[in-house]
Write a structure and sequence with these properties.
This protein has 88 residues and is mostly helical. Helices cover 92% and strands 0% of the residues. It is built from 3 helices and no strands. The termini are far apart. It is found in: Cell membrane.
Length: 88
């Protein structure tokens, strides 16, 4: 069951990451670029979670949690930076 799910998910996540990379490089505004990088981080964390189930490895899920928290901290940092820029 999990093998068929992984075979289905790998191309979907790969296509999504390529589209996010295009948006991150081509994005006209800073929020577009930040959102694309944020989506890459969360998608990679979800993909690592799925792979940890497939490989039965608890180390991958701990890496996925760290990556998701890092993406969340990036959101907070950039939002505070953008709010500071708007106030000035």
């Amino acid at each position: 069951m999990i093998e068929s799910v992984v075979k289905l998910i790998v191309p979907i996540f790969s296509l999504a990451i390529v589209m996010y990379l295009v948006r991150a490089v081509k994005g006209p505004t800073i929020p577009d670029i930040v959102l694309a990088i944020d989506c890459i981080g969360y998608d990679l964390a979800a993909f690592m979670g799925i792979l940890s189930l497939y490989f039965k490895s608890p180390y991958l899920i701990s890496g996925a949690i760290v990556l998701a928290l890092w993406s969340y901290l990036l959101d907070i940092y950039v939002s505070r930076y953008l709010l500071r820029e708007v106030r000035v």
